[in-house]
Amino acid sequence: AQSVAQPEDQVNVAEGNPLTVKCTYSVSGNPYLFWYVQYPNRGLQFLLKYITGDNLVKGSYGFEAEFNKSQTSFHLKKPSALVSDSALYFCAVSANDYKLSFGAGTTVTVRA
Amino acid sequence: KAGVTQTPRYLIKTRGQQVTLSCSPISGHRSVSWYQQTPGQGLQFLFEYFSETQRNKGNFPGRFSGRQFSNSRSEMNVSTLELGDSALYLCASRGLKDSPLHFGNGTRLTVT
After folding, report:
1. Predicted pLDDT of residue A97
2. Which residue, of A81, A96, A110, B102, is most buried by count of CB atoms within 10 Å of its CB?
3. Average model confidence (pLDDT) for chain B?
4. How many CB pairs under 8 A join A and B?
5. Are A83 and A15 in contact (CB under 8 A)?
6. Are A32 and A9 in contact (CB under 8 A)?
7. Would you call B4 and A43 a contact, using CB atoms and an 8 Å cutoff?
8. What would the DSSP string read from start to end of chain B?
9. Is the Cβ pair B103, A44 closer than 8 Å?
10. Is the predicted pLDDT of residue A39 greater than 80, yes or no?
11. Average pLDDT, stretch A73-97?
C-alpha cells in the first residue's frame, strides 16, 4: 500500500517570504514522488518530480523539493512566494510510476 | 502541443442514469488514467489504460468502467448513478516511462 500525508490543510504566508508545503509518504520500494498544483475549476498542473538522483529537485515557477529518505518526506519549497502562488497543492507518491496516491491537499494563500 | 482534452466540462444527471465521459490525451501519449476528485475523499485513482488494455484499477464498484481506443482516446462510463458520484473526474495522459502525468481540466458531474 502507498499513501501520502500533507499535515497542513492551509498555509498562509506574506508575499516575498519563503513558502514550505509539507509532505510525508509511505510506499513499498523506491518511491516516485510528485508535486502538483490546482487552480479553481482546473485540472492539476505538474510542478516537479523525484525518481532517482539528486535529493534536491528543481521544478516549474521557482519551486523546489527535497527528498529525504530517512524521514520519508518530500517538502515543497519556494524561496520567495508570490500572490499568484495561491492555489491548492498536492503531493503524490507511486511505487510503479503509473498509479498515483495523492495527499489531501494543502491550500496556500499568499497575502500581498 | 495541445493538452489533455476532456468533454464535456459540465454534466448534470439524475440518479439511476448513466453517463459517458471522454478524454483525448496529448498526441503521442499512450497511457491514460482517470481520477475522481471529491471534497470528502480527495483524489482517488479509478483506472489506467495503456494501448487499449486496462493496466491497473482502483477500488471502485463495477458501475465504473472505461475503455481506450486505438487512437489512445479514452472513455469512462458510470452506470446507475448515485448522488455520491457527484465529483470532478480528471483524465491524465503520460508519455514515456518516468514522465509525469498531464491532467485535463476535468468533467464536473452533478447527480441530482
Report:
1. 63
2. A81
3. 95
4. 54
5. yes
6. no
7. yes
8. ----EEE-SEEEE-TT--EEEEEEPPTT--EEEEEEEETTTEEEEEEEEETTEEEEE-S--TTEEEEE-TTS-EEEEE-S--GGG-EEEEEEEE-STTPPPEE---EEEEE-
9. yes
10. yes
11. 94
Q: Which three cell numbers stand for residue B80?
A: 446507475
Q: Cell numbers for B54, please give them.
A: 486496462
Grid cell 501519449 is found at B29
d(CA B80, CA B57): 20
Residue B106: list chain A partners with CB under 8 A: 42-43
| CA–CA gap between residue A100 and residue A47 (Å, rounded) | 15
Q: Do the chains contact at A99 and B42, CB–CB below 8 Å?
A: no
Q: Cβ(A87)–Cβ(A78) under 8 Å?
A: no
Is residue A23 helix, strand or coil?
coil
Read off the pLDDT of residues B3-21 as tens digits, 9 standing for 90 and up: 999 999 999 999 999 999 9
